[in-house]
Amino acid sequence: MKKNDAPKPEQPSSGVSRRDFMKISAVTSALPLVLGPKAVHAAGEDVAVLGPGKVPVALNVNGKKLQAELEPRVTLLDALRGQFNLTGAKRVCDRGACGACTVLMDGKPVYACSVLAIDAQNAKISTIEALAEGDKLSPVMQAFVEHDAQQCGFCTPGFVVAITAFLQDHPKPTADDIRHGLSGNFCRCGTYSGIRAVALAHTGGKRS
Amino acid sequence: MTQYSWPDPATRPLLGKKIDRVDGPSKTSGRAKYTYDYYPQGLLAGSILRCPYAHAKIVSIDTSAAEKMPGVKAVEIIQKPGTEIFWAGDEIVGVAAVDEGTVHDALRAIKVEYEVLPHFVSDAEPPKTVAADTGPISSDDFQDMEENQVPDEEVIAAIQKRGISFKPSDKDYESMKGMGVDSSIIAALKKANYVEGAAKPKSPYKKTALQTQGEPDKAFSSAAAVSEGVYGMPCIVHCCLESHGSCSEWPSDKEIVVHVSTQNVSGIAAQLAEPMAVPAGNINVLQQNVGGGFGSKFSVDRWDVNTATLSKKAGGKPVKNMLDRKAEFEVAGMRPSAYGRVKIAADKDGKITAWDSRSWGTGGVGGGGTPPLPYIFEIPNQRKQNTAISTNQGSARAWRAPNHPQAALITMSAIEDLAAKLKMDPLDLILKNLEIAGPRKDTYREEFAIADELMGWKKNWHPRGDKTAGPVKRGLGLSMHTWGGRGHNSNQDFTINPDGSVQIKLGTQDLGTGALTIITIVAADTLGVPMENIKVLYGNNRYPQSGGSGGSTTSGGVTSSTRRAAVNARDALLAKIAPALKANPEELEANNGRISVKGDANRSLSWKEACARIGAVPLSVTGKNPDKDQPPDLTNSGVGGVQMADVSVDTETGIVRVNKMVAVQDCGLVVDVKTAESQVLGALIMGISYSLYEEKILDPVTGIVLNPNLEFYRLAGLNDIGELKVHMMTGKGYDERGVIGLAEPPVVSPGAAISNAVANAIGVRVPFLPLAPDHVLAALEEGGGSHA
């Protein structure tokens, strides 16, 4: 087998050199996409063609500006995990069915496996890592511990993020709200009973 | 004399209470690290090209284009041209590259030519013309029997009757022993007649000999009631949320460091040593947390060997390959299907007198499981026969309580149908027959009384068919189960440091069951210190060996080794400080964070002061399980549990909803009631999931899995579970049995309890799980339903 030890190309193969990008981004920093030499005219607009090589991506995650060179096909989830070591969001189904990768984009829960990193550039992203303050658990996390709402724990961060957002929208959820509002995440060990108790704790424990 | 036995309720501050899981904070905050989360410097991505056909022969493989691609660091052909492939998804070529995108581009550039062969994926009832296997047992037949857990006495009878067509060497016998083949079987093999094996006609069916006990014909003909039915459940998939896989790196050309998602930290190195030609001692296996296993993560898989091989080829750089979801469904294990055509009879008093079953099922190429039929009840007159069907799909793996959920569904459904025929409440029928319900019969009786109360069974049960108006019908069903659960081999190092902190090292793992928590509880309880003083180091094969987490053996194993170690450490500490307290060691006790002279509160030292007298070198002891030199036995085998389900069935849409489930469970001494209850709640939820939704669907035309993902393979969600009540049996009659495992038993009964509740609601049996709308509507239409 032939080894390929060629060094990585210095310049991304998108046709946009790093230097060009710096110039362009200086004047178009408000645009979600960086217009490069390749563009197509679609729906009355010039739309940048990115990739297939790596392009610079800047993300606002947990209040920090993070930068990486990524292929446009890389998802927000894989960028968070592989580039920035934010591994609380998990990759399970990788196609928007299970919710284990849930993060907040501008305060709304999204499946990070179904958002491209390049499309997340203008949003404020919060991951599970930002919901606790250092070693101090958030009230939702604390409730998860008290109600033993985790077993293997692989779905847990996704659930914690989803419930945190859900309780912001439903400060006093009814049992019905909970049933419908928390059906976007799967657990395999069977921790729903504890998770339901976490959400119900906010109604004063009543199964209204 | 050192007292290792479990302490009395009066003198155990932590044991048997409801205590939060110690790894809860790290898991809820997302800090807990799993194998999938390991991203070392210079990590290469690994992935595998898999066979798209259910049965094929590899004609040629061309990897040249992939090898030339920038960023590709290693390519390894896993199965060479000429190899016959028996299931879709089997491994063909592995690739490592700088990132996942490049790996997938490279996999697409590989050209493999196949000769497609005919496949067979149906687990429908075998034709009646299939004859029982009579020729000599081949090596493959024998392996299939062992993998399918055919009872030892049946294997021995078959060996004696049919002879064997292979000649095991001494080395073979050694490896059989290593794999847990019973010595009575090895003895039978050694004595067996060697018979030249004739070429067998190709057939997917392996039928056991008909087994008869008592006089079934006579019993059936003189019975007051005979019920006949067909019942069963399809293949389902483990769906561990963390997929299978590992990350390997080579610090030198003789050492491997492996991060792996496993239930078997202490058992991985030995399995990897041979294929990698590296001494097991040079392989360091690491895992902090595991995202689910359920029986499917004990072995080093071909993809793990490939990952280590790719790493070596890439100069030792770390390579990680975690299976994608499709591969997970194709090759990473499933629970075998099982179906049975059953005839069961009772006399006029409701005593069950006779059983006849013809069962079948598949677990992939090797055949199927052998459910222990009839389940629990030792029916005096019986006749049974099982046919294992070999199908072209990835092999079955242990799935929580192998063969028991299938046996419970088939048996408990038949008993419920018999009760309906007798116009009896099935609870009454079972209570009448508890005399033949084996060693846990008294436990079942107590548990049914509690379950009756929690469910309101006697108050709410109605004869079969809800007669109230409207399309939605409600019904109750029940089931019962048993399991062994004796603690496995476990060893540990236990150290008290001069600063008062305590550390325990053992090569175990916590699958989310609470193993880490119960180890901590037992240590803290024994030393009389807060749990915060105890640090458990686990998930590393360089720590003392502890068994794999399978068959509900971990709780009994790790708590027993911890109790012995903690008692040894405590007594050594007491001996050290006795002179300072002017007492004999036997006069001292450790509790509430102090070491005191019994009955004299003035003569005491705080835990910290006491530990400061250890000296510069920490106090270190060991503990193990089992340990005949340090009696008594602290674990035990054999538990009983019962469950009841309350369901509503919409007879217009066929949708079944679980309103409520009740589980009453025994597991000997409960160490932490909180995590134990969670384990049972989890089993109920997993049970609701497989009862109502789950089925691995294979396309008969192409042989591939049609729903290898979490959209079309449905798992229960938070909206689907109803009200759940768990009652753990504790106190006298239970505590003194010692610690027994709990992971398997409560997942056995839900299928039968829910299926029985549906039959009670709508008045007809839906024969097969999942109790999905199409199955329910078909049963309503046909008044029975069929599996074809």
Description:
The complex is a heterodimer of chains A (208) and B (788). By secondary structure, chain A is an alpha+beta fold. Chain A folds into two domains: 50-129, Ubiquitin-like (UB roll) (Roll), CATH 3.10.20; 131-201, [2Fe-2S]-binding domain (DNA polymerase, domain 1). Chain A is 29% helix and 16% strand. Chain A has seven helices and seven strands. Chain A has helices at 18-27, 76-83, 128-131, 139-146, 156-169, 175-181, 192-201; strands at 39-42, 45-48, 55-61, 64-70, 102-105, 108-111, 124-126. In chain A, helix 4 packs across helix 7. Chain A is elongated, with a radius of gyration of 20 Å. Mean pLDDT of chain A is 83; it is low at 1-36. With 788 residues, chain B is α+β, with helices and mostly antiparallel strands. In chain B, 28% of the residues lie in helices and 23% in strands. A seven-stranded mixed β-sheet of chain B has the order 3-5-1-14-11-12-13, with helices on both faces. In chain B, helix 16 links the parallel strand 21 and strand 22.
How would you describe this structure in keywords?
heterodimer, A: 208 residues, alpha+beta, Ubiquitin-like (UB roll), DNA polymerase, domain 1, 2 domains, two-stranded antiparallel sheet, elongated, B: 788 residues, Aldehyde Oxidoreductase, domain 4, Aldehyde Oxidoreductase, domain 3, seven-stranded mixed sheet, six-stranded mixed sheet, 21 helices, globular
